[in-house]
Every structure is written in structure tokens, then in C-alpha cells.
Amino acid sequence: MLRRLIAEIRADVTAARDRDPAAQGVSSFEILTSWAGVQALLAHRLAHALRGAGVPLLPRLIAYLTRAVTGVEIHPAAEIGRRFFIDHGSGVVIGETAKIGDCVTLYQGVTLGGTGFQRGKRHPTVGDNVTVGSGAKLLGPIAVGDGAKIGANTVVVEDVPPGATVVGNPGHPVRVEGRKLEGPDADWIHLPDPIADAIKALSERIAELEARLAEVDGSADAGQPAREQPGIKPRTGRSSAGG
Predict the structure, then answer these.
(1) pLDDT at residue 185, as a whole number
(2) Residues 229 and 160 in one domain
(3) What residues are labeled active site?
(4) Which of 28, 124, 146, 215 is 20 to 30 Å from 237 by CA-CA measure?
């Protein structure tokens, strides 16, 4: 068990260095002593191992003290894969029956929670290489497919297909055209917005109908170009992810 814990610690520190720009050039000792997300994860590794060994009380006590120190609450029974990274960490909650795959990244304020008082599986299952943005809520025994990306403040209550990008409340699966989703991507500014797209389409259709109605009525506006409708333009400019 000790050998496995050491291997997991090394992998978790490497994940923090690879995915957090602030960790570049920082020693492993400094990451272990000052990265709250890493500390919370390592404490969970220990609590989970003790729980699996049948040790009473101590796993929950470790989880309680970890929450008080780091602001991250992870139930000792939650199953977490390798190279997991919690950026900043504050406000993250991971429930008892949650399962998280390898190379997953969570940002601050993320909740992997339940939706009721039923017993059994009641928390999300997250696949490999998933990125979950700040403040997102994944609720219930849903499945998030490998390589999926959950936008900031998204509320997800249904299964997410592999490789999909989900935004909104409730979450809507969308695609990022012409762009391959690879690894942890924090560019939440340029995500598509299906609701805005629908409003834009309706606005254009209304303008077209108004122009046709003016022709039928023979009003003064007939033959005049339709009035320009206020558009909903996608965000442009520098990515928040530094790209």
C-alpha cells in the first residue's frame, strides 16, 4: 500500500506541474506544502486506503480536517484515478459514490453531488481526460464520457457523450467547430452558446417576415431594406487560457 501511495503522490505532483502555469519551475516540496488541491488529494488517497483496510473513524476524520484546511471536501469512499488535479481547490465537493478517471482536471467550486436521498450510486462517474470549469455542478448518477469538457458554472444533470463540450443551465452539449479538444483547456470565453444562436436565428426570421408583410400591405417600408437587428456576436480576442 505504501509503494502505491508513493507512486500516486509522484503522479499527482507531476499533474500539478504539467497543468498549472504557476507550478512551472517550482520544486515538488513546495507543491506538496502549498498547493491546496494537491494536499487535499493526497489526504484523500490516505483516507481512501485506510477505509479500504477497514479502519474506522480515522478516514472521515482525515476528510474533515482536510476540508477545514484546504476548503476541499472529498468523501473517503470516492474513487479517484491517477494524475488528477484540482486547480486552486476552494469549494470543490466530491461525493461518496463519485468515480473519477485518469488525467481529470477540476477547477475551483466544482461539485460532484447527488440529487436526492436514495441509497446506492448517486454521484457522477467521470471518464478520463475530462476538464470541469469553475463553479460547474455535476449532479446525480450521470456519466461524463472520456475527453468531455464542462464549461464554467454549467449544471449537468444528464449523461455527457465522450468528447462533447457542455455549457449552460441545464447543460447543453455543443461542438467547437474546427477545433480538436485535447487535454485540459481553460478557454471558457470562446465556447459556443446554443441559446444565443437560437435567439439570433429567431431575430433574423422575424426581420424577414416583417419585410414580407410590409410588401403585402404596401406600406411605406415596402421595398426598403430590413432594419438591421441587434446581433449576438461571438466573443473574439485573446483566450483566457493564454492562447
Answers:
(1) 54
(2) no
(3) 88
(4) 146
| Model confidence pLDDT, tens digit, residues 103-145 | 999 999 999 998 877 788 999 999 999 999 999 999 999 999 9
Q: Please check whether residues 20 and 110 belong to one and the same domain.
A: yes
Residue 112 contacts residue 124 (beta carbons within 8 Å) = yes
Residue 174 banded pLDDT, cuts 50, 70, 90: confident
Strands 85-86 and 105-106, how do they pair? parallel
Residue with grid cell 468523501, as numbered in its chain? 75
Judged by phi (left if over 0) then psi (alpha if -120 to 50, else beta), residue 50 lies in alpha
Q: Residues 133, 107: contact at Cβ < 8 Å?
A: yes
DSSP-H helix ranges across the chain: 2-19, 28-34, 36-52, 58-70, 194-217
Residue 240: pLDDT band by 50, 70, 90 thresholds?
Answer: very low
- Tell how strand 143-144 and strand 149-150 pair up: unpaired
Are 104 and 220 contained in the same domain?
no
**Domain membership flag for residue 240:** yes
Count structural domains, the chain. 2
Task: Looking at the structure, tell me whether residues 221 and 170 fall in a common domain.
Answer: no
pLDDT digits (tens, 9 = 90+) for 7-37: 888 888 889 988 888 888 888 899 988 899 9
In a domain, 183, yes or no: no
220 is in which domain, residue-wise? 193-243
Surface-to-core class of residue 85, CB atoms within 10 Å of its CB (0-12 exposed, 13-18 middle, 19+ buried) = buried
Could you tell me if 162 and 197 lie in one domain?
A: no
**CA angle, 22 as apex, 17 and 23 as ends, to 5°?**
25
Residues in the chain: 243
Q: Are residues 44 and 139 in the same domain?
A: yes
